[in-house]
Design goal:
The protein is of the alpha+beta class. It is built from 14 helices and 25 strands. 30% of the residues lie in helices and 26% in strands.
Length: 539
């Protein structure tokens, strides 16, 4: 009797021992059962024990595990295509031979496809051993998602369940001349042509493994190979989706991910000719596909690097990357209610990029927090008045007249004590400034030095020190970090009612001022009871 499995699992194999064993074990123990399962494994000329391990599983599971051997093709596309030619299941599923599945993965995905009539089912995928996997798509299960209105463009690996009817009808295959990313043209076209795509986030279906030797093919490709493959993917996609918001929704991923990776910290060390070719290739893709909408939605760091590459300003691009690697991002320039990141090439007629390329229109909380540092702190006393004198460096220049220091009274909410700054809601009341302020340029133009003299009041209180600054029409609250800076010693002051005051870091390293009386007058039983009840209510 001819066997008709529900799902054929395709495994392209090249030198993945010992990971291959765990991969195959995870397949044969699937809860869907061996009678509903077909495993088609293609050994792409392995030189380790992978071929022998495949044959061992084929011998142990006859009729379930089918093994094909061929000479090495240089990538997973050719063995995957060969497996598709012989697969017989109603659905096909692709798995990397160094990865593995959760025990119920296939049964759950097939059931979902049958229940909802899905052509594609995407099961939750996680990374192991430090492998990064984008997680936003898996926030919840959804039987019907759109390629253009979801995070699916950031999850374009072929590690999904595909209805074989869809694959056969459109003759979907993997381009065999792409060393990396060959699964994307297949996956994108399948998603464009699918009647329904479902996502399952209720279970861990797929475990993506980063090998201990980092020998996954994705990590081995050089800049020019990755550029060529990205161009192939984008050109193929452009042939499927006409220009407009839907194409932009897919290409957002390629500009933020594949193409941005070509302009990271390792770019300045590349040979001059390689850098030139990268810039030329990027310029062609930017000219063809980087619409105004995509440009404006891209963070200023990436946007400037793309703009410099498109203009062929290789010296400025190299300097922008190297400077940020060595010294951090440049301070924001606040001007006329707008914020600019003055990377190399800013307002340089020879480069020719207008101000919009350098304007920060996205949230800037993280960068503001990173650029705000406590320089010094000390006590000053004039008679009975005690003052904490602070000097802070702000990662902004230009119009900083809005910058103030304020004290957050009482317990600090978690939202106000995150590692970065936070953007205040439009209707939030901005605290009143505390003390006196001076402003002067920091050494070398690296921001503004804000001097603050904060008078300390003789009350029982714990207050966090915050900087508030207006950037591009929004107000940001920045906790002041101490970062190991020596704090002034705790002081006793006050003649009538002596108090103790301390400036110290809280457990997250944020500056807190604590004041309390050294002793309190004795209370009668009634007053003591009232104070106890009052404190319990506050808790």
């Amino acid at each position: 009797m001819t066997r008709s499995p529900d799902v054929s699992v395709v495994v392209a194999v090249y030198n993945t021992m010992p990971y291959l064993t765990e991969c195959l074990n995870s397949l044969v123990r699937q809860s869907i059962g061996l009678d509903r399962l077909e495993i088609v494994a293609v050994d792409d000329g392995s030189t380790d024990d992978s071929g022998a391990e495949l044959d061992r599983f084929a011998e142990r599971y006859p009729g379930v595990v089918r093994v094909l051997h061929q000479e090495n093709s240089g990538g997973p596309a050719a063995p995957s295509n060969r497996a598709l030619e012989v697969a017989t299941g109603r659905f096909v599923y692709f798995i990397g031979s160094d990865d593995y599945l959760g025990d119920e993965a296939l049964e759950r995905m097939v059931a979902c496809a049958d229940e909802h009539g899905s052509d594609i089912v995407v099961g939750k995928m996680v990374g192991t051993n430090g492998r990064y996997v984008h997680q936003k798509l898996y926030a919840k299960s959804d039987p019907d998602i759109s390629l253009y209105a979801s995070s699916l463009p950031f999850t374009l690996a072929n590690t999904k369940l595909f209805r074989r009817e869809l694959v056969d009808k459109h003759r979907l295959r993997f381009p065999e001349d792409m060393p990396v990313g060959s699964d994307q043209p297949f996956t994108i076209e399948a998603c464009v042509r699918a009647r329904k795509i479902s996502v399952l986030g209720d279970y861990t279906y797929y475990y993506a493994v980063k090998r201990g030797d980092a020998s996954n093919i994705t990590y081995r490709a050089d800049h020019l190979a990755r550029l060529r493959c990205a161009a192939r993917i984008m050109d193929h996609t452009a042939g499927l989706i006409e220009a407009g918001p839907q194409r932009d929704a897919v290409f957002k991923r390629h500009f933020e991910w594949e193409l941005s990776k070509l302009l990271l910290d390792d770019f300045p060390a590349l040979p001059l000719e390689t850098r030139r070719q990268v810039c030329e290739g990027l310029a062609a893709l930017l000219e063809a596909y980087f619409t105004d909408g995509l440009r404006d939605a891209t963070g200023v760091k990436r946007r400037v690097r793309f703009g410099l590459a498109q203009r062929g300003a290789m010296a400025e691009l190299t300097r922008a990357i190297a400077d940020e690697t060595d010294h951090g991002a440049p301070p924001f320039l606040l001007e006329g209610g707008r914020a600019f990141a003055p990377y190399p090439g800013f307002r340089d007629a020879g480069v020719g990029l207008d101000d919009r390329w350098y304007e920060a229109r996205e949230g800037v909380a993280g960068r503001l927090a990173a650029g705000t540092k406590l320089v010094s702190a000390d006590w000053e006393q004039d008679g009975q008045q005690l003052t904490l004198a602070l000097k802070l460096r702000l990662g902004v220049t230009g119009d900083t007249s809005s910058a103030i220091v304020a004290l957050a009274q009482g317990a600090m909410p978690q939202s106000a004590d995150k590692p970065g700054a936070r953007k205040l809601p439009k209707d939030a009341l901005r605290p009143k400034a505390v003390g006196e302020f001076t402003r002067e340029p920091a050494e070398g133009g690296a921001g503004i030095l804000l001097g603050a003299r904060i008078p300390v009041q003789p009350v029982r209180a714990k207050r966090g020190v915050r900087v508030y600054v207006d950037v591009a029409g929004s107000t940001y609250e920045i906790p002041v970090r101490t970062e190991g800076l020596p704090m002034p010693l705790a002081r006793r002051w006050g003649a009538t009612t002596p108090h103790r005051v301390a400036a110290s870091p809280n457990p997250k390293g944020r500056l807190v001022i604590t004041t309390a009386p050294l002793w309190e007058p004795k209370l009668g039983m009634g007053a003591l009871l009232r104070r106890t009840l009052s404190r319990s209510k506050r808790k």
